[in-house]
């Protein structure tokens, strides 16, 4: 998880390179049919190390709740959770 500087409040002023969300900078991406797996997100260019790719959004929920939620959904095959720290998972399923 990254924390971003707020424009106008950073001591680096206009030299700050930690405002990627605000600048809207990201990698060129496209959707592609990936057989039985469904739809995949494909990079249209080489992604260099430490590059910002995309913002991942969803509900931050406790790990135990996340796993219990999916254990109670028989037939669910696709999960969209990303662990943000040792206690929470960001669930972008909805």
UniProtKB/TrEMBL annotation:
GO CC, any one term: chromosome
GO process terms (BP): methylation
TM ranges: none
GO terms for MF: histone methyltransferase activity
Gene3D superfamilies on file: SET domain (2.170.270.10)
PROSITE patterns linked: AWS
Domain of life: Eukaryota
Keywords of this entry: Chromosome, Methyltransferase, Nucleus, S-adenosyl-L-methionine, Transferase
Domain AWS: 1-25
Protein name: AWS domain-containing protein
Subcellular location as annotated: Chromosome; Nucleus
Main location: nucleus
């Amino acid at each position: 998880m990254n924390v971003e500087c707020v424009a106008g409040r950073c001591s680096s002023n206009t030299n700050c390179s930690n405002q990627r969300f605000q600048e809207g900078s990201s990698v060129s991406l496209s959707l592609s049919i990936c057989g039985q797996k469904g739809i995949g997100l494909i990079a249209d260019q080489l992604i260099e190390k430490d590059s910002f790719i995309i913002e991942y959004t969803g509900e931050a929920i406790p790990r135990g709740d996340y796993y219990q939620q999916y254990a109670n959904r028989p037939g669910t095959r696709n999960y969209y959770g990303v662990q943000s720290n040792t206690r929470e998972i960001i669930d972008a399923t909805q």
